[in-house]
Amino acid sequence: MNEHISSAYDRDLEGITTLIVQMGGLVEEAILKAAKSLADRDVELADEVRAADKTIDQLEVQINEEAARTIALRAPVSKDLRSVLTVLRLAASLERIGDYAKNIAKRTSVLVEMSPVNGSDAALRRMAREVQAMLKDVLDAYIRGDVALAEDVRQRDQEVDQMYNALFREFLTFMMEDPRQITACMHLHFMAKNIERMGDLTTNMAEQIIYLVTGEMPDEARPKEDRTAYVSDLS
């Protein structure tokens, strides 16, 4: 890429990076607000999360358009092309995380009509805070090209899985002890699963950043602790 085109490419990528950071900030906010709306049984806040998802979706469309334009005009190769493809994948993951936050907000609107399940709201909020912190770090890792921080985020997904396992076990116990809580526990379980999937997507983003910087995906299989497919192991 000659110097003139390289300079234009750098400006394009800087603009797209700004959009990614903006989108990431909105998604972080959606995660925290969705968890708070559940803890406070705040329907208005839940509605705010659902409405804000449209802005997140619009940003993904804008990023896709800008990335396509950059590829068409600058014809990047090697790491430059990898950079553009990475932002497309990061934007897709952020859009899905935003969808999960919106799903939590939808279920909150249903749960306000039901009695709280002992301790579950606080546990879900802690889980959501952990995922939001991972997302913040992965965005920092992207901006700084920090492989060590991206790898740290990748390893922390185990903690989210362990939180999910514990909640899954608690919900099973609550439902067995009091069938009247089955409906509420099912909604809460799906919320916990939404947050666990947010952690997986954030880990995907960390792996994409490692690939962007090093040119190679992490060698070791991703550490996973979700054991809910083997319910007997959770006792």
TrEMBL record:
Residues 20-108, 124-209 form the PhoU domain. Pfam families: PhoU. Its main location: cytoplasm. InterPro entries: PhoU (IPR028366), PhoU-like_sf (IPR038078), PhoU_dom (IPR026022). Keywords: Cytoplasm, Phosphate transport, Transport. The keyword Glycoprotein does not apply. It is found in: Cytoplasm. Plays a role in the regulation of phosphate uptake. Homodimer. This is Phosphate-specific transport system accessory protein PhoU. The gene is phoU.
